[in-house]
Design brief:
The complex is a heterodimer of chains A (707) and B (52). Chain A has 23 helices and 26 strands. Chain A is an alpha+beta fold and 707 residues long. The radius of gyration of chain A is 31 Å and the shape is elongated. The N and C termini of chain B lie far apart (52 Å). The chains are: A alpha+beta (707), B mainly alpha (52).
Chain lengths: 707, 52
């Protein structure tokens, strides 16, 4: 490509990292990020994907992802690191389906043109010519576009089972074979049009379904990555080298610089530092760790470099353990999917036997093998449960798309079903009803100069309180002053020199019961109060939920005083000082009482509760674990999406039921007609396609449901 | 009839061209960022001069 120096070892190789930047809203943001990152040392190129709100940065591997994230944040955008793209394979799958769909569409249009002239009375040589032309187009098209079905049917048959693709494949192959026979013998009817049209509509359904899955994975599947991609390992001879996370082994010694995430669990061998363990505990206060203490993968080293001897890597780390626990808790939810699978297992053999019986019956009656085979094919095609198969995914795709535009990502279709059923809401407090990060409340007490100094100091620190102050000041369009000699005094704060005057931002002398920070300029000092504020429209959202028939209550691990403040403000009953087990028990109690509980929570301590509840929603600011355990994630600072998703889910279930009625009604009407031989394969294919179109059209009405 | 001999191949060829163009577009990630393409047209090139 362009002038990249020859790659020598792993440290200088170009790698691509992806980041989620939710704040990309306009062309200005695109150019600001791309131009801002261009020319930074180590960054080769960057590309913003506006649709998915992602930034892909190609960079030298000596730049850690965390450093890149800070580069983006320095440009004024909050960014989160994305895990290695686990959905490439799935996406390839959908791409393959789309290609097959395009080919089937091409074939269908051309064959239809030829068929129309045959129907309108072409005879003799012209008809035969058109049949041959149709065959010429249809055979390669079916061979290409039918592959997804043939392959799946072949796999099922090889394992002695049958699935929906078996009758579809048999129907298409029989119809094609019959048509070729008709064409060769100069017969009056060929059914290439029916076979190709069937393929086209089936593929359309599959593509829709695949896109829904991909989108869900884009949103959450690529879980925000907390563990580092690798670490600097100190070899016996004292040399350091970069080792990727999967190649790390226990007993290696890794050097963790300030500001780096840990790639593996370990014991600190030398040095001491403060660690941000919010991933594990949800607690934003940094925790001091020294020699001999455990440091866990996914925690962030805040203040000074340490050397850590690795005790567990990869799958064995505590982070992975928790992720696995959540996975297991979520397993039992696939109940609905299992029912659908079982239904399909019974349906496929039923279709085969019905078609076979029709063939045998008409043979016995004496209709001749040709006529009997035609009827059997018509039965196979018409009973193809495309409308039935589309009834649920089509509605779910449209609904989740509508919700996604409103900032709610629903992980899978069954979540919508369960959301519609929920009739009680449990809220966590910190980070759910409140914003979860401290916001300065008395910035007006500061003079402009003080604000500028504060911003300059806060920008240099990674402490959560500094981050809150920084966000608050940046929102006021404050420009930081230039400071010299910025240093961090461990456990006390940031200090620097401002034109000869010592300035400091740190712990206040008089400690309050809530978060606060003190700015000292020379001898003068001001105390900044910070508060974790209630989400702006929480009362409205809770009222909306109540109107939808979901009374709510708070269950929080926090102390009774701060919980009761929020409970009073929102007019909810509350349970304070609840452990994760208490939360699960509260849910079990409600479930035993006949309630279907919707849990809204964010932290690691909510993880078990999120998994145990009938359905759960987490805010986008939630910990990894919270996001993984929840069925849906909303990204806005408002709480309104929770009420909105309940509303949309209920509307979706209505549409799903309508679709089921339509699809079943169609089968009840059409199957007897096919059995009695009143339907040719072409009409069967048209009827089948029409029923699918009606179902999809009905589902499209959900597009406006999220407004 | 002789008209058909010309028109049908032309119709098929044009359809095939469309299909190939679509395949090309998919392989070159033309559908990856549809909204972004709409936004990018608004970005002003700062240096103003075209790259040769």
């Amino acid at each position: 490509m362009n002038a990249i120096t020859p790659m020598t070892d792993a440290r200088t190789q170009a790698i691509v990292s992806r980041f989620v930047v939710p704040a990309i809203r306009c062309a200005g943001c695109i150019s600001k990020i791309e131009n801002g990152l261009a020319g930074k040392p180590g960054i080769l190129s960057s590309r913003v994907n506006f649709s998915t709100k992602q930034v892909a940065i190609s960079h030298l591997s000596e730049l850690a992802e965390d450093q890149l994230r800070r580069e983006i944040e320095a440009l004024g955008f909050e960014a989160q690191i994305l895990a290695d793209n686990p959905l490439t394979e799935e996406k390839d799958n959908t791409d393959k389906l789309i290609r097959a769909l395009a080919v089937a569409g091409f074939g269908m249009m051309n064959i239809m043109l030829l068929s129309v002239s045959v129907w309108s009375g072409a005879t003799g040589v012209t008809r035969d010519l058109f049949h041959w032309l149709s065959a010429l187009i249809a055979i390669p098209v079916i061979a290409y576009a039918g592959r997804p079905f043939f392959a799946s049917a072949a796999i099922a048959l090889r394992h002695g089972r049958t699935n929906m693709d078996v009758p579809i494949s048999i129907g298409i192959l029989l119809a094609t074979g019959l048509s070729i026979y008709e064409t060769v013998t100069g017969g009056a009817h060929a059914y290439f049009d029916g076979a190709v049209m069937l393929l086209f509509f089936l593929l359309a359904g599959r593509v829709l379904d695949g896109m829904m899955r991909d989108r869900a994975r884009e949103g959450i599947g690529a879980l925000l990555k907390q563990t580092a991609s690798g670490a600097m390992v100190i070899a016996r001879d004292g040399k350091t080298r970069w080792v990727a996370a999967r190649d790390l082994l226990p007993d290696m010694r890794m050097m963790v610089a300030a500001g780096e995430n840990l790639a593996a669990d370990g014991v600190i061998e030398s040095g001491s530092s403060n660690f941000d363990c919010s991933l594990m505990t949800g607690e934003s206060e940094p925790q001091p760790r020294g020699k001999g203490d455990m440091a866990l993968a996914g925690t962030l080293n805040l203040t000074s470099p340490v050397i850590v001897r690795i005790t567990a890597t990869g799958e064995d780390t505590s982070v992975s353990d928790i992720a696995r626990l959540m996975d297991q808790a979520g397993q039992r939810r696939s109940f609905y999917v299992r029912i659908a699978d079982r239904a399909a297992r019974f349906y496929a053999p039923a279709v085969h036997s019905l078609a076979l019986l029709a063939f045998i019956f008409w043979m016995l009656v004496g209709a001749g093998w040709h006529q009997s085979l035609l009827i059997a094919v018509a039965v196979l095609i018409i009973t193809c449960p495309c409308a039935l198969g589309l009834a649920v995914p089509a509605a779910q795709v449209v609904a989740s798309g509508a919700l996604l535009r409103k900032g709610v990502m629903v992980k899978d279709g069954s979540a919508l079903e369960r959301l519609a059923e929920a009739d009680y809401a449990l809220f966590d407090k910190t980070g759910t009803l409140t914003l979860g990060h401290p916001v300065p409340v008395n910035l007006d007490d500061l003079t402009l100069a003080q604000k500028q100094i504060t911003l300059a100091l806060a920008q240099a620190s990674r402490h959560p309180v500094s981050k809150g102050i920084r966000t608050g000041l940046l929102a006021l369009d404050i420009e930081p002053v230039a400071l010299d000699d910025i240093r961090e005094l461990p456990g006390r704060g940031m200090t620097a020199s401002w034109g000869g005057v010592t300035v400091m931002l740190g712990k206040p002398e008089i400690s309050a019961d809530h978060l606060s920070s003190q700015l000292t300029v020379g001898t003068e000092s001001v105390v900044l109060q910070l508060q974790d504020e209630i989400r702006p429209d929480a009362p409205a959202a809770i009222a909306a939920l109540r109107a939808l028939g979901l009374p709510g209550s708070i269950i929080s691990g926090d102390n009774i005083r701060s919980v009761s403040t929020v409970a009073r403000a929102l007019d909810l009953t509350a349970q304070a000082a609840a452990s994760p087990q208490d939360k699960v028990e509260a849910i079990n109690r409600l479930t035993a009482g006949g309630h279907k509980v919707l849990m809204v929570g964010d932290g690691l301590n909510d993880g078990p509760a999120l998994a145990a509840a009938h359905v759960s929603i987490a805010p986008g600011s939630a910990s990894d674990v919270g996001q993984q355990a929840a069925d849906a994630v909303f990204t806005s600072t408002s709480l309104m999406p929770v009420a909105l998703s309940i509303k949309v889910a209920r509307r979706t279930m209505q549409i799903v039921h309508q679709n089921f009625a339509l699809a079943i009604g169609y089968n009840i009407l059409a199957v007897p007609l096919a059995l009695t031989g009143m339907v040719t394969p072409l009409i069967a294919a048209i009827a089948m396609s029409l029923s699918s179109l009606i179902v999809v059209g009905n589902a499209l009405r959900l597009n406006g449901a999220a407004r | 009839m002789s008209g058909l001999a010309i028109l049908i191949p032309i119709a098929l060829l044009m359809g095939l061209c469309g299909l190939l163009v679509f395949f090309w577009a998919m392989r070159h990630d033309q559908f990856e960022d549809l909204d972004g393409a709409a936004q990018r047209i608004l970005i002003e090139d700062e240096d103003g001069d075209e790259q040769p």
